Amino acid sequence: MKNLMKILIVAVLVFVLSACNFLEFGLGNLKEELVGRDMLIQTYDEDSQIIDRVQGKSISVNADGEFAIKDSEGKTVEKSSVLNITVGGKQMLHVGSSLLAYEKGLQNLFDEYSQKVDITNFDRSVPFLNRLVNDLQNFTTGKSKIVLIRSQSGQPLATFAGNDVSYFATDVDKSTALMIDGKFLLIYRCDYSIYDTELLQ
Description:
12 strands, ten-stranded antiparallel sheet, alpha+beta, 41% strand, two-stranded antiparallel ribbon, single chain
């Protein structure tokens, strides 16, 4: 019985430690709710020109639940696409145009990678197994990836890269959250492609 308990404890510890990106994402969200994140927020027009730029040490970005569509039982049928943002206690609402919100220390490498991507790869593989392995890596350790972001009309907008990249669903419609080397990035109403770095080398 004692051996079984030890094995169970070790298994739980291994799972918790291996799922560090998922854990880090959850802890980051908790921190955002309690003290906010040190972030930069930028909104863009269809031509990828910056409309506005907001920076602060205590920023929180959430979906405004008032705009979610719910059924008669109160279950959410369609997530809200209205962002309710607080910056140092002051409120900002946003909907419509492309928006990026990213933590201090995360660098936009747009100038370096803004050229169009052309990939030729003839390696044989097993797609089902590849997806399984990639999903597991995304949840646990992350992978070296490059993120190319475009406006809703397809104009290049931003580029991020990291050695430890994972992506997550959010409670905001038309958005994706990423952890890039421990830093948070929110992509809202943008086109994007996420490539394994090896694919572009």
